[in-house]
Amino acid sequence: MSNKLTLTEPVVSVSWLSKHIEAPNLVVLDGTIAKVFNDASEQIPNARFFDIKQKFSNIEDAFPSAFPSAEQFQKEARILGVNTDSAIVVYDDKGIYSSARVWWLFKAFGFNNIAILNGGFPAWNKAQYPIEKASSYNGELGDFTANLQLNYMLFFKDVEQASKEKTHTIIDARSAGRFNCEVPEPREGLRMGTIPNSVNLPFTDLLEDGILKSKTELESAFKPLAEKEDPIIFSCGSGITACVLALAAEISGYKNIRVYDGSWTEWGSLVDQ
User: To 5 degrees, how large is the angle CA 150–CA 155–CA 160?
Assistant: First the structure.
């Protein structure tokens, strides 16, 4: 295949990726959280590890997975060989989990020719498509340019105001047990609780075996919570699965959507009960 890819939908299937795996401008990113490289590590052929925690987060921030600067994001994307004309497909090892964060980060830095692999590595493996031993990328530098877009990410002061003034619908992607303070937070020392005036839509409700449910089912999940034109802020534990909600909302036709970067880890640390 000689033609360069242009991605028109935010999600692609494993069969689609298999058909286009040789496209000249395709870059496959493995966005698995805290991927461990050992003799058993596997990846989709020619995939490049997108290290959310160490390379694409502000590691000096007090909270995990914090939004990086444009300079940092551009530098690290270029190291992975990402070009301005690349077509990126991103996956993770859980189905759809941290891959949505990678997708959202690229959009926040002005890059839209990116899609998430529906079902991720498990679906690729289940379909018995080729896999290879995981390795670090050591190819040519790319020419990717980061162009920060305002309002993809919101931060503590933004959400504090939105919560007090009820200007946005704040939707929390955590489990119902965590949202309702029935089970403790997994992060040690973090209190249980919720952002005032927020509602709950567990990100797992939007998936079936790691694959996104149909557009009709996604729309049905959002409909009781917000109208299509409503301004929405998505939150979660640390800004990862909130992006799964953002993905499903975009597919469902919601346009006015934001992600709270620090999410409950930041809010629960900064705000007393």
Answer: 125
Q: What are φ and ψ of residue 26, in 5° steps?
A: -75, 135
* Dihedral of alpha carbons 165, 107, 104, 247, sign: positive
Q: Cα 152 to chain center, whole Å? A: 12
162/74 same-domain check = no
Residues labelled catalytic: 236
Residue type at 151 in one-letter notation: N
The structure's pTM equals 0.96
% pLDDT > 90, the chain:
93
**Domain encompassing residue 225:** 153-270
pLDDT tens profile 97-123: 999 999 999 999 999 999 999 999 999
For the chain, give the longest Cα–Cα distance.
58
Decide: 206 and 173 in contact? Cβ < 8 Å: no
CATH number at residue 172: 3.40.250.10
